[in-house]
What does this fold into?
Amino acid sequence: MLQVNFQPFPQIGTERLLLREITKADAADFFALRSNKDLMRYIDRPLAETVQDAVNLIEIIIAASKHNDGITWGITLKDNPRLIGTIGFWRIMKEHYRAEIGYLLSDAFQRRGIMQEAITAAINYGFNVMRLHSIEANVNPGNTASIMLLEKNKFMREAYFRENFYYNGKFMDSLVYSLLTSNK
It folds into this structure.
């Protein structure tokens, strides 16, 4: 079975970015991301309605990394500590050496290659440090930007599930993509 250890929390530096631990000090920036209807339109989770909602989610993220059940990095620019996005492996299936990746980036920073830089770093960490065999992405079929990002990074479409997810009073479709260590 896969063994992971996120203590101490692993920071990752790239050319322009620092992927770092999210703390309660990030609550206002995290709230701005998670309360933005446009950003969250393809993430089938409730919008944060208050800063306290953001703090509660940060506490869940912190607990997941402390218990080695998931890891979420805050995405920041190297020269600015403000949170502009998140990326991580929020669902780790240790018995299958597989994890589900998820990400979110402020619209002010989109279309600059930032998420490409972050996903490259996360994939490298997942395969080389965590020793994953595969990385999964569950995507809303309408999220063409995410689909293009995954396909650019050699993720292959594995499945299209029709109305398999019930959220906000309706059944929704999902796409599942995966990347195997042998295909990266």
About this structure: The CA atoms of residues 171 and 183 lie 33 Å apart.
